[in-house]
Amino acid sequence: MPDTGPRDLTRPGLVCCDEAVAGIPVSVRDSTFVGRDAEVGQIRSMVAALAEGRGGVLLITGEAGIGKSALLAAGLAGAYELGCRCLWAAADELVARFPLRTLLDCLTAEEQAEITGPATASPTGFGMSADPVLAMVERQLAVVDRICARGPAVWVLDDLQWADEATLLAWNRLSRAVDQLPLLLIGSARPVPHRAEVAGLQRTLLGRGATVLPLHPLRPAEIDRLLDGLLTRSAGPALRRFAQRAGGNPLYLTELVDALVREDRLALLGHVAELSAPGAEPDLPSSLTAAIADRLEFLSDSTIQVLRLAAVLGTEFSVLELGTVSGKTATDLIGVIDEAVTASVLVGQGEHLVFRHPLLRQALYQSIPAGVRIALHHQAAHALADAHAPAERIAEQLTAAPEALNGWAFDWLAEHYPSLTRKSASTAAGLLEQAVTVVPADAPARDRLEAALAAVSFLMSHRDRAEESARRVLARTDRPELIGEMSWILAYALMRAKRQADALEAIASALAGPELRPLWRARLVAEQALMLLVCQRHDDARPVIAEALAAGERLGDPLTIGYALHTQSLMDMRDGDTWASVRTIRRALAAIGDDPETADLRQVLLANQMSFLGMLDAWDEVEACRHEAVALAEQASTARLCMVYVGAAEQLFSQGRWDDALAALESIADQLPDPAAWPEISASYAAIRALIAGHRDDRATLSDGVAEAQRAAETQTRHEIVFLALRAQAIEEERAGRPGRALAALRQCLDPDHSASRRSLRNQLLPPLTRLATELGEPQLAREAAEAAADDAVREPLPPKTAAADRCRGLAEPDAAAVLAAADYYRAHGRPLELAESLEDAAVVLAGDGELAAARRAFTEAAEVYLGLGAAWDLMRAESRMRPFGIRRGQRGPRRRPSNGWASLTPTELKVTRQVAAGKSNPDIATELFLSRRTVQTHVSHILAKLNAGSRIEIARIAARHLEPDRQARSIS
């Protein structure tokens, strides 16, 4: 390969002149390395496995200077030749790096752009919390998926103990994928300082089977070899004895030898001969820190001063940044940089400079008095701001010394907090909190800073802080735009805290004032309409919806129009008109478009549209809507993500795709929000898992899920959530031999005090209610349930409700033809559970009429469907109901799917397997199959376990053996 210049992993887009060390930073691979043969062999063994498609996780631990990075450089030296891409990142201790910045720096510019933008949520956060950092984590995982689809990858995170929380989260999430991606994660860390977050990550990684390599001091023979490598001639016995002072720490030993060379005192130790007297030993540094400081003493004062400014900037910096903060031109800096490079303090890496070792930078940084450090950070921040540097670089400096925020920083923060929030909401919030604490009461920026803190706090779901800040601004300001925005945030925060009356009061107070601008007045009216609907004040809400919609259209404001139509769609559903609700949602989606300010509202509308279309059995539209909703939720990574996944799982359950539903729920299991804050999500999540467990006769999961769903549903007014919990409870009671209690749970849907919207959603509860009433000898209750189903079908003559009415009537009268008509509908419209239940009911009615042959046919088809779903409890119940008629399931016919092997794969898993065999990445498979990347990852994990495969390559090999005969059979036919 031609020499095209050095490549450092942390500077993307460059080419390495030596394929064997591609991706390994110059500062690491230039170091002398000896020994560690077993450890090097372990790393190379893992790299060899990676080249064959098997990923893994490796943790290297040891004190500073013990050689962790050098070991990695030696172990990974041949990775490039094996086709592995190497990514190398190093965390930074002294300056707070922005979330994920460390990991981003070792990707190409195109890959970074895919992760960092564009932002899809408004930084002011209307609607619900949006965490751009979590969004970046999600997008980064997708990028890694695609990198690994192109070939094996090694990703090193050096100095893991200094990594920010977002980087630790990303590392945690990536570690779950190594069983299915050709990805080797390697982290190195010192044992101190102890950070709870890092310790927690290490425990998690160990629990997932990570390999740990603790590095101990070099042995005497290895110290001798290192000395020989550092010197031009063989070291004498005295020098070898002196080298033992380093305690087996290679960096310390290197610094000691360099100090001897610098001071021309090597002869005193008898480079070739013995010392003449013990007292002749030179006075050299007694610790690694002192040795590092000793190296710096040989630099000129002017170079030291510039390097201290460089240390303030971070471990890595550009010449342009150094010139900006030092006030020197690039020409002025040439001599300083040359001296620092010659002294092995700095190393050139692409367009940047890097401290050769973090301890060098630490020594420089800590040599600056604390008060001076604070001043330097603010000087650097101001200079970078004047040079229009990226907001995150300026914020890094301000974050390093927030206690000294002053006038220019207040103005800068008030102006740039939106862009800062998109990079890191927590960083923006921390700086804003500090600024609000120290900003003078009469400063022009005070109210803007407090308003920004309210917006960012609301964005992060810190509702108490958002309320407090918003109220303080409203008490002081007379600026119309702040009054409007703070009133909106205050009201929404109160609503999310279940304080609807307070929310309406806040809106009314704002609307009563003359200061509001027309835009904010319209938005608050739209918010008021939603609050009235939430408070069940439907008649009051109707005219307010109309007022908001008219104002929004007059002003051309997508947010006002979108919220007014969103509220109208809920009103349509409350009135029992599902199609009208869907049409209104479509109108709202068209009105708001892809405006970032309405991104959260778009997710709400898509989630509702998916749910309402599911009530209409419009599965093709549900599929498209689910795909769009999940893609948007993952891209924005808001609290809506779990809501969207739970809604998708509910629709998948209705379609009989239970394994897919469970995979969707499993994808978010570790990100479920606090049940106290989001009970609707917790209730739905638990109820769906309980429903599937109940039908599949997993009694332990059923019991736990029902209890959790009932707790979370106690505060709910959303009837679909309450009904999910009731369905699961009824299964648990009936399975436990308490059918009367199951009947009592289901009959709640007949309560005449409940609203029209509850009646419009109960068509899935009325058939099992009718069945149980009939079986328990309560014909009057069965007729009431059948009449309720018929009434619902008349009020809203939709095919699913007509089918439910037929089934209930057929059970209550009884009339087998009516039940079979319902079964025909369910068969044609993709509701397998309802199909099997209807066939089971029809078989009982037919057998009771003496039509045993027809009953047996209906029962046989029902059993086949139940087996396909894995609905063991339903099959047992059906067999029990048919037993009095002498009808039993034959020994032939389908059997339950095995738990492992090719035959155990579900239909979706088979589709995913074919895509994996074709070499596609998880994001590409998700796009192809209208799934989410998370769900595909869950499916691949299940496939690996079922096929006992160790990698995607093995999946492809196994698939080839099974799929080729299938293709040949299809070709012959």
Radius of gyration: 34 Å
**Separate helix tally:** 48
CATH architecture of the domain at 19-214: 3-Layer(aba) Sandwich
Biggest beta sheet attributes? 5 strands, parallel
**Beta-strand content estimate:** under 5%
Total strands: the figure is: 8
Can you tell me the overall shape?
Answer: flat
How much is the average pLDDT?
84
CATH topology of the domain at 19-214: Rossmann fold
Distance between termini?
52 Å
> At the first level of CATH, what is the class of the domain at 19-214?
Alpha Beta
* Low-pLDDT segments, ≥5 res: 1-20, 119-125, 271-280
Which strands sit side by side, in order, in the main sheet?
2-3-4-1-5
Write the CATH homologous superfamily of the domain at 19-214: P-loop containing nucleotide triphosphate hydrolases
Give me the oligomer status. single chain
Helix and strand content put the structural class at mainly alpha
What does this structure look like?
- With 973 residues, the chain is mainly α.
- Among the domains are: 19-214, Rossmann fold, CATH 3.40.50.300; 220-294; 299-368, Winged helix-like DNA-binding domain superfamily/Winged helix DNA-binding domain (Arc Repressor Mutant, subunit A, Orthogonal Bundle), CATH 1.10.10.10; 463-567, Serine Threonine Protein Phosphatase 5, Tetratricopeptide repeat (Alpha Horseshoe), CATH 1.25.40; 594-667, no CATH class; 814-896; 902-972, Winged helix-like DNA-binding domain superfamily/Winged helix DNA-binding domain (Arc Repressor Mutant, subunit A, Orthogonal Bundle).
- Helix content is 64%, strand content 4%.
- The chain has 48 helices and eight strands.
- It has a five-stranded parallel sheet with strand order 2-3-4-1-5, with helices on both faces. It has a three-stranded antiparallel sheet with strand order 6-8-7.
- Helix 6 (132-150) crosses helix 7 (165-175), helix 29 (599-615) packs antiparallel against helix 30 and helix 45 packs across helix 48.
- Mean pLDDT is 84; it is low at 1-20, 119-125 and 271-280.
